[in-house]
Write a structure and sequence with these properties.
The chain is built from 10 helices and no strands. It is an all-alpha fold. The termini are far apart.
Length: 199
Amino acid sequence: MGFLLGYGFGSIPFGLLLAKAGGMGDIRTIGSGNIGATNVLRTGSKKLAAATLLLDLAKGLVPVLLAKAMFDQSDAMPQAAYGPVPLAALGAVLGHCFPIWLGFKGGKGVATNLGVSFGLAWPIGAAYAVTWLLVAAIFRISSLAGMAAVCAAAAAAAVLAMESYVPALVAIAVLIIWLHRANLGRLAHGEEPKIGQGK
């Protein structure tokens, strides 16, 4: 149930819907072809990109919080790694990355996993956000910041002894890094665009 809740929210393609509503057409035909905020920004609309970022974050945050409320699981309660809250977290990211409505071709999950991280526990979300901001400020590369942040979230859960969240966050980190494999190739060759540049 938790997984389906997360997947349902995560699979809403806000970037695609907002871009079309804003007259920008199908964002899958530009830039990286993804439906996330970074690609929406390539349309030239900072407002649409910001809205996409917030909504993609929300679709990770909301199902995790709902799962906690529905299944009466607070941060103070021990939870199984296969329980509804971690599964809602995993489902939300998988829904964003592989939405059934778009032929399982979605975004890369970075913003959605930020919402998931805050939903699981605010210190995990804080570790995610701070890592993203620091890496982005230093290197000015969004993909690198995103990959570092997802690893930081999993590490934070382990350090904070929130063991039930670690497997889901590790699985999410592996997935997001795999989805960034083309970015890794460009990083290795010094060809990855910096924040504000085109693809």
